[in-house]
Amino acid sequence: MVRLGDLERRVMEILWVEFGSELTGREVAEHLPGYAYTTVLTVLTRLEKKGLVRHERTGSLHHFAATATRESYIAALMHDALDVGSDRDAALVRFAETVSPTEAAVLRRALDDTASSGTTLRP
């Protein structure tokens, strides 16, 4: 999974908040005062090449949308982090030791739901 630079992350945050909707390049730029419209379009194009944004052109308007949710992106980053080390199990155990009781309950519920439905959770 690709890592995001600061401006890329800010652009993605805008698209994730509006997930399921398409925004014009100008609408995205309006959320980023201090950045030129052309800079925002360049970032959107880069994000499209990285597979995080899809783009459609209607006449002279360019519409952009996130290809997946913020949560899917974060889950993919977590999988990538697990792939870095040689002992995935140890990394999972260490992660489990650092989560709050509330987060542990969420994980337990998700794992139980996945086990009972016979599906696999993947980003």
Task: Provide keyphrases for this structure.
elongated; three-stranded antiparallel β-sheet; 6 helices; 3 strands; single chain; mainly alpha; 123 residues
Q: What can you tell me about this protein's structure?
A:
The chain is mainly α and 123 residues long. Helices cover 60% and strands 11% of the residues. The protein is built from 6 helices and 3 strands; from the N terminus they run H-E-H-H-E-E-H-H-H. The chain has helices at residues 6-17, 25-30, 37-49, 70-84, 88-98, 101-117, and strands spanning 23-24, 53-58, 61-66. A 3-stranded antiparallel β-sheet has the order 1-3-2. A hairpin with a 2-residue loop joins strand 2 (53-58) and strand 3 (61-66). Helix 1 (6-17) packs across helix 3 (37-49). The model has no long low-confidence stretch (mean pLDDT 91).
